[in-house]
């Protein structure tokens, strides 16, 4: 059986939980049951305990929650669940109540890594997450990632824009620190050393714990590492578009650089705008919106072949196709957590289940061949 390789993960036993098939239920003490799962062997020098208990200090989530395993984010001291919850829909297609329901389910199943940006819904995404953390008292157990550089109010990566954007994000999130701050794309108008210098001051002030790059080229990542060798902050993570349907943008030079630098890779659009969930098989299934049209772009011979392989593997493991698609990503050496979003709490079950699914080597090969 092929094993997934993720930074900072130790083998965690043989017990799996079919999270896609059941909903968390509270017991008499209002605690959610533990979610033990088979882990993954990796570099011995960067391992974490097989099971890590976390207590959520709130009336809604009281009692211990055991998660399958945690992965170390780059060279930081942050240990995170292998699924990041994307929040680009918060404040856009999801209002406060619906977003709260998704966040509740995510935290209730052990999730602790949330991805947002100051440009998502003009800051509403950050505000919703901040309100949720305040109401549930979950800030200290969540890892919040946000991005700066594309907001209308503070565009670009100049030192002034970065400082103002971070202060705005902190206010909306209702927190005193950002766990991972991403530079949201490259800014050719600003020398990278100026951007990193501004972030260095924010790190020193305790406003930012770690930094990452979003959609940076291999050349820019190499430049950043050279600058880090001279005392500027070092990138610890990389977000990039990557899935079974979109492989060429990451595999190759970017993947080699990310692996060499020990970057924690967090793929976004890991289900190819929902196409890999299996709900779109023909043009009649396509929703008439931007996301639907992006998913429809994968209809064709290659897309049909990938879905057929996903269907077969999903049946064999009694999980959803989306679970298999995310498990394929988690088998990649540098990937620690796909960034996936959900419109309803129920959709999260198939996403969370990917952390417990160990694909056979032959299944990985079959998926690789179908998606090339």
UniProtKB/TrEMBL annotation:
Pfam families for the chain: Aldo_ket_red
InterPro entries hit by this protein: AKR_Detox_Biosynth (IPR050523), NAD(P)_OxRdtase_dom_sf (IPR036812), NADP_OxRdtase_dom (IPR023210)
Region of interest: Disordered: 1-46
Entry GO CC: cytosol
Biased composition (Basic and acidic residues): 11-26
Organism domain of life: Bacteria
Domain spans labelled NADP-dependent oxidoreductase: 82-370
Name this polypeptide is given: Aryl-alcohol dehydrogenase-like predicted oxidoreductase
The organism of origin for this protein: Agromyces terreus
């Amino acid at each position: 059986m092929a094993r997934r390789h993720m930074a900072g993960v130790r083998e965690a036993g043989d017990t799996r939980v079919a999270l896609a098939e059941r909903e968390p239920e509270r017991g008499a003490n209002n605690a959610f049951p533990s979610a033990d799962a088979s882990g993954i062997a990796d570099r011995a020098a960067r391992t974490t305990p097989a099971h890590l208990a976390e207590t959520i200090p709130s009336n809604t989530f009281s009692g211990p929650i055991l998660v399958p395993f945690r992965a170390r984010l780059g060279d930081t001291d942050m240990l995170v669940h292998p699924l990041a919850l994307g929040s680009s829909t918060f404040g856009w297609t999801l209002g406060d109540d619906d977003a709260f329901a998704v966040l509740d389910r995510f935290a209730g199943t052990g999730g602790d890594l949330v991805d947002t940006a100051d440009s998502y819904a003009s800051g509403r995404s950050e505000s919703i997450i901040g309100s949720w953390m305040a109401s549930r008292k979950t800030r200290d157990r969540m890892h919040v990632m946000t991005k700066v550089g594309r907001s209308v109010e503070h565009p670009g990566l100049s030192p002034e824009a970065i400082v103002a954007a971070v202060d705005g994000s902190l206010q909306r999130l209702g927190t005193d620190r950002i766990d991972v701050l991403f530079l949201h794309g490259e800014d050719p108008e600003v020398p990278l050393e100026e951007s990193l210098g501004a972030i260095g001051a924010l790190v020193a002030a305790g406003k930012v714990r770690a930094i990452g790059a979003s959609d940076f080229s291999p050349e820019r990542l190499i430049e950043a590492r050279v600058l880090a060798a001279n005392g500027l902050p070092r990138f610890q993570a990389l977000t990039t578009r990557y899935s079974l349907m979109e492989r060429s943008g990451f595999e190759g030079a970017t993947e080699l650089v990310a692996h060499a630098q020990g970057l924690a890779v967090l793929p976004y659009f890991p289900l190819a705008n929902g196409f890999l969930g299996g709900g779109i098989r023909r043009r009649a299934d396509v929703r008439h919106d931007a996301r639907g049209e992006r998913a429809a772009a994968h209809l064709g011979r290659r897309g049909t072949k990938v879905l057929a392989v996903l269907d077969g593997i999903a049946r064999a493991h009694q999980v959803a196709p989306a679970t298999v698609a995310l498990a394929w990503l988690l088998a990649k050496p540098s990937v620690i957590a796909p960034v996936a979003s959900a419109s309803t709490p129920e959709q999260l079950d198939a996403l969370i289940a990917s952390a417990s699914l160990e694909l056979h080597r032959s299944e990985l090969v079959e998926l690789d061949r179908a998606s090339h």
